[in-house]
Amino acid sequence: MITLKEVRAALAGAVELARGDTRGLTYFAGTVREFWRSFWAAAIVAPAWVLLLALDEQPMTASPLVMVAILAIDYALLWTAFPLVLHEILSRRQGTERFCHYISDHNWASVIETPAMLFAASFAVAVPYDIAQLLPLLVTVSIFAYEWFIARVALRIGFGAAAAVAALDFLLSLTIQLSADFMLGVGSIDRKSTRLNSSHVK
After folding, report:
1. How far apart are CA 24 and CA 189, in angstroms?
2. Is 202 helix (H, G, I), strand (E, B) or coil?
3. Which uninterrupted H or E stretch holds 171?
4. Model pLDDT for residues 16-47, shown as the tens digit of each residue
5. DSSP character at residue 14
6. Which residues contact 143 (CB under 8 A, 6 or more apart)?
7. Residue 167 to residue 132: CA distance in whole angstroms
8. What local confidence, expressed as pLDDT, does residue 159 receive?
9. Half-sphere CA count of 53, side-chain side, radius 13 A
């Protein structure tokens, strides 16, 4: 069980990194134990993720039981697919020494990212003007920049490689979400839909 002190330290580090301050890395030890404990962030952000999905206006043809099962698998994959794929890539390049540190940073960053996207999506749904639709896009761009920065400083890689890592996370999440949408029988995506917004935050 993770302690409140550990959660506070991890969130403090995530906030510092969100400010562009590399001192946020000092809040993470980069140990295997810390790596596994960072997945507690999944439990913390789960309510916000569910609320984000609830904002979606697209009908689903799947039954409630099937819907719950698919969304549970969807959420599990959103948290596990990227670390598994990235570890395989880094292993082939003999660059796994910073893997645990990076994933710890990346996971706790979601505690900032998911509520931010929930706010943006809620605003876009509540405000009946096209200009309001820009907020989720701006937040998405900000999240990508945040993920790029974390990859660059935590993995100690170059600008382009960090962008590739952030893009890999985004594309994997998008693929998982679109697959879940297909199984749920979600209708066509329109400008009010938040399903794609939920794909790249956890």
Report:
1. 37
2. coil
3. helix 159-184
4. 999 999 999 999 999 999 999 999 999 999 99
5. H
6. 113, 116, 117, 200, 201
7. 25
8. 96
9. 23
DSSP 53-117: HHT------S-HHHHHHHHHHHHHHHHHHHHHHHHHHHHHTT-GGGHHHHHHHHHHHHHHHHHHH
Helix, strand or coil for residue 185?
A: coil
Q: What is the tens place of the pLDDT at every residue in 49-78?
A: 999 988 876 667 778 888 899 999 999 999
State pTM to two decimals.
0.89
SS3 196: coil
Tens-place pLDDT, residues 165-200: 999 999 999 999 999 888 887 754 444 444 445 555
Structure tokens at 98: 């910073």
DSSP 19: T
Question: Cα–Cα distance between 35 and 16 in angstroms, integer?
Answer: 19
